[in-house]
Amino acid sequence: MSGYKYGSCYYGKIEDVDWERWQKLVDMIALLFDAPAAFVTQATTNGIEVLVASEQAPSQYCPGAYSDKNTNVYCHQVVQSNQVMYVADASEDEKWSDNPEYTEDQFSSYLGYPIQWPDGNSFGTLCVMDQRPTDYSDKLMTVLSFLRDTINSDLAYLYKANQLKVESRFDELTKALNRRGFTESFERHISLSNSFNRSSMLMYLDIDGFKAINDQWGHSVGDQILKDFATALLKSVRKSDLVARWGGDEFVVLLDSEQEVDKSRFVERLDESLKTSCQEHIPQYSIGSVELASNTDPNKLTDFLCKADAAMYDNKSLNKTKR
């Protein structure tokens, strides 16, 4: 179906929802509307997926069931239009002649409200369906609208909590990971590499003469160089690799590979990225590294960082920036 929105998938998973609360909510809706089925659905890459179903809903509408994007079901229309939709009697509108909810399961009445993330992107629907034509009062519709707003509030809370969690793991200036984010990710990353017998390399990088840059050109220029350097680093690695601002003008990078990690190739990519990412000043840098075997202890990050840091300072003192 053209124009289908995938906004629900953009914000990731929603395991922290109070599912018991949502279950009670849809059961209450089915009771209030004297209807056999009420649902909370989510617009996913599969299509419209049932998240929560009232207790009396038919088994084919259990949580996890979905209608693909090309199937003409009621909720698709609500997601696409982002508007409330009330179908009192589907037999009076030809548009539902190929809707299996009507033609196969005899759901001739539908009332659905769009559920949204805080920024207005579509999440899914809150809806009630009946196998009889209906004539719902304005009062009942107001009740359903209020309950939809309750779900929107739940999503707003989840969204905010997730944003705070993300922000706590990333450096505000450069958008690279911060110490906390890198440390948490390092343990998972190394454990996974060990499982697949992959090699890793930890690199410690320092921008040469950064204090002099700040003193001569000002902190705004220094901040821009930090941002440009982080951007160049991120462009030089794969999405599965890790890049973090460790503090000040120091950065750490974790690369892995099925074979031995090629440090020289990384430096080549970084140098090329710096040429395109830096707005004015292309910084010089020093780099140190330590190879991590496929049986690396993920709890020894501090030891590895000390070794990579020492190697970086050796290179800096010898003026070997690997350029």
From TrEMBL:
InterPro entries: Diguanylate_Cyclase, GAF, GAF-like_dom_sf, GGDEF_dom, Nucleotide_cyclase, Rev_trsase/Diguanyl_cyclase
Gene3D superfamilies: 3.30.450.40, 3.30.70.270
GO molecular function: diguanylate cyclase activity
Coiled coil ranges: none
Protein name: diguanylate cyclase
Enzyme Commission code(s) on record: 2.7.7.65
UniProt cross-references to CDD domains, sorted A to Z: GGDEF
Catalytic activity of the protein: 2 GTP = 3',3'-c-di-GMP + 2 diphosphate
SMART domains (UniProt xref): GGDEF
Domain of life from the UniProt record: Bacteria
NCBIfam families attached to this UniProt entry: GGDEF
PANTHER family attached to this UniProt entry: DIGUANYLATE CYCLASE DGCM-RELATED, REGULATORY COMPONENTS OF SENSORY TRANSDUCTION SYSTEM
